[in-house]
Structure formats: structure tokens, C-alpha cells
Amino acid sequence: MNENTSKLELPSWLDTIAVFDTETTGLNLREDRIVTASIQRLNANGDVLAGGKDWVINPGIPIPEIASKVHGYYDKDVVDSPAAAIAIPEILDAINACFAEGIPVLAYNAAYDFTILHYEAVRYGLHPVEFGTVIDPLVIDKTIDKYRKGKRTLGAAAERYSVTLDNAHTAKDDAIAAGHVGLAMLRYFKAQAQPVVPFPSSMQELHDLQAKWADEIEASYAKWRQTDVPDYKPLFGWPVKNFG
To answer: How many helices and strands (H and E) does the chain possess?
Structure first.
């Protein structure tokens, strides 16, 4: 991103954002469990503010080796950590507190983290997240820079927007890097001379646009999958997938 774009002023509704990331036992949104999580707060310049929190959790099930090799936590590392029944309510409270203050929560591929968290809440008989507004850089990226070639991982987005990502797959570092990517991406979006859509006038408008875009992305993906798997069904829902 050029220097002028990086210094572009964002609207006041982005003065403070929260960033959220999880590392889990796997990719099954309804069955897998959270192993580590982080919620941090950033200002519009990307500076980390007070009030963040990190969790290392005993998920209550064995951590598959394939997952451990990604995030670095093995069963032995979490055996003495707080149980999920204790940690999940704390995560829900921290996220709900952000929404109650009118602070948007940013998560890269939000439907992954929030769907996992939703089913963790259900598992322990807890009320799921009471959503405010969410920012998902992955959904925004796939919409405003739709025809860019290459991967759409957090690492690829960090490279695209000149964001440093140290210790990838560490919840705190990923959350903060996602926040920096998201802020840079929104500046790029705002600076476009001919944007795909006009830059939103409020955080609620941005949230609603992302819900629409996420469904469009899922429908497009399903159409592509159906060329090989005719009975493939799209899974709509953002920021929580709707399994019916």
C-alpha cells in the first residue's frame, strides 16, 4: 500500500476495534474445540490498547497431532489449563462486553471463529454471543479485490497489505495482525477511486454489506464445487454458519 493510503483517516466509528482469534482442535465447526483464544483492542492506528485477554484452554478432548503441529499446543501443554467450561463463558463475556460498548469485533474468516464459539456455548448450556457489529477482512478482501490471484490466507493478506505477521497461528499475534490487515484494507477500500461499492457510512452498514457478500461468496463457491460434486450444498450464514 502506498504511503498516502496508509495515512488515510478512517471514520470515527473505527476509532476503536476489538480483534478476536482462536486456535482449535480441528476444522469441524460443530464438533471441534477451542484450544487458545485472544481478544485485544486496537485504535485506528493499530496500536494495542489496554483490556486484552488471552486464554489457553483444556478442550476436554485429545488435540489431534495435525492441529498441534499448526498451533504448537499438545495435550501435555493444556493438561493443567482451565477447562473449557470455565474459559468459554469468559470469552463470551469479553466479546459481549465489546459489543455492549459499541465496539466492532474483527476476526479474519469470522464465520470460522464465531461458529466454533457458538457451538462451544451450546455445548456448555450457555447463551451464544449477543452480536453487535463484526468486521471480516476475508469477506471484504474477496469482494473489493475479487480478481486478485493467489491465496486468501491471513499470511497472504498480511503480505499484500505490508503487515508484519510474527508467530503465525498464535492466537494473539494472529488477532493483532488481522486487525492491522483489516484497518489497512479499509483504508484501501476508502481510497479507491472507483470502488466495487461505495464505502459504507456506518459500522452497521459495513456489517450488513458483509453478511450479503458472505452469502454471495458461498453461493459462488458452491456453484464451482457442484461442477465436481453435483449434490454439494452451500452453507450460508455470517458471522455464524447456519446448519439448520
So the answer is: 9, 5
Each residue's pLDDT tens digit, 175-228: 999 999 999 999 999 999 788 889 999 999 999 999 999 999 999 999 999 999
Burial environment of residue 201 by CB neighbours within 10 A (0 to 12, 13 to 18, 19 or more): exposed
Which residues lie closer than 8 Å to 98 by C-beta, 6 or more apart?
A: 18, 39, 41, 104, 105, 132
pLDDT at 4 exceeding the cut of 80? no
DSSP 54: E
Q: Residue 60, SS3? A: coil
Q: Which of 83, 62, 50 is nearest to 91 (CA)?
A: 83
Q: Which residues, in sequence order, are CB contacts of 119 under 8 Å at separation 6+?
A: 29, 30, 31
Mind listing the pLDDT tens digit for each residue in 133-189? 999 999 999 999 999 999 999 999 999 999 999 888 899 999 999 999 999 999 999
Q: What domains can you pick out in the chain, each with its CATH number?
A: 3-225 (3.30.420.10)
Q: Is 178 helix (H, G, I), strand (E, B) or coil?
A: helix
pLDDT at 18 over 60: yes
**Residue 237 carries which side chain, given as an amino acid letter?**
G
